[in-house]
């Protein structure tokens, strides 16, 4: 007779319980993995947003950092320059210092560059090539960007003094007598036979719009030749009609 083996039968209810526990374990494991993936995704998104924010900050600050760091290099070049020897702040720069402008009431001074091209104005205020030189009869036009070097023009008031130092070391003092906003497409800036200084920047100061036709213009006259304010208005009106040579602004 053959041997008969009896195989014990497992309780089916226990098998169902084990299967249920296994299913719950797998579901919990999947849920934990999903939560982990979501947390990793959130971390990645946060990192991306931080990088984008930093990039925006750097981009917004770049023009200001470049402008004011350039003034340091320009100051070094100014100290080494003379009427017979003009130093460039860096070899490949297509301009050079020609004057230093000082605003005593604001405690600020800046190096003025030759020319008012876009590249020059990115690093400092520029003296128009169509301008006369400091101390000569005629109009000096110094331009600057409203969001960097010439943002301070909005804080100047009539009767305040502006001092311009030439490359030869001569100082010329001017006193502000008129501040105006003009549409450069409709109003010409004219040359004169008397000495005056025009400080020009875009307007309005707090606008993000580029290529605005509005210009904020400060006109200053030599301190020693400063007439009475009523005479300035009459004299200025008469001379503006007589002399029609335009000075173009290139920014």
From TrEMBL:
This protein's record includes keyword Hydrolase: yes
CDD domains named among the record's database cross-references: Sortase_D_1
Matches recorded under InterPro entries: Sortase, Sortase_D_1, Sortase_dom-sf, Sortase_proteobact_type
Pfam families named in the record: Sortase
Entry's EC annotation: 3.4.22.-
GO molecular function ontology, one term from the record: hydrolase activity
Membrane spanning stretches: 44-65
Coiled coil segments of this chain: none
Keyword line: Hydrolase, Membrane, Transmembrane, Transmembrane helix
Protein name per the record: Class GN sortase
Organism this protein belongs to: Thalassotalea psychrophila
């Amino acid at each position: 007779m053959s041997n008969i083996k009896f195989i014990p039968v497992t309780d089916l209810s226990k098998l169902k319980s084990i299967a249920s526990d296994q299913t719950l374990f797998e579901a919990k494991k999947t849920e934990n993995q999903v939560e982990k993936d979501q947390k990793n995704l959130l971390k990645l998104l946060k990192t991306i947003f931080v990088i984008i924010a930093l990039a925006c900050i750097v981009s917004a600050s770049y023009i200001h950092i470049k402008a004011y760091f350039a003034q340091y290099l320009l100051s070094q070049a100014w100290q080494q320059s003379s009427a017979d020897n003009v130093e460039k702040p860096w070899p490949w720069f297509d301009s050079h210092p020609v004057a230093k402008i000082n605003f005593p009431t604001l405690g600020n001074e800046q190096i003025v560059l030759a020319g008012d091209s876009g590249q020059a104005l990115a690093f400092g205020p520029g003296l128009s090539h169509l301008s006369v030189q400091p101390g000569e009869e005629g109009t000096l036009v110094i331009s600057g960007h409203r969001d960097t070097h010439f943002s301070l023009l909005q804080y100047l008031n009539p009767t305040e003094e502006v001092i311009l130092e030439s490359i030869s070391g001569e100082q010329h003092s001017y006193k502000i007598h008129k501040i105006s906003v003009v549409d450069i497409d409709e109003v010409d800036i004219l040359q004169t036979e008397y000495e005056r200084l025009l400080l020009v920047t875009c307007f309005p100061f707090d606008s993000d719009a580029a290529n605005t036709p509005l210009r904020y213009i400060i006109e200053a006259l030599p301190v020693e030749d400063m007439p009475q304010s009523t005479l300035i208005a009459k004299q200025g009106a008469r001379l503006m009609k007589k002399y029609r040579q335009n000075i173009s602004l290139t920014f």
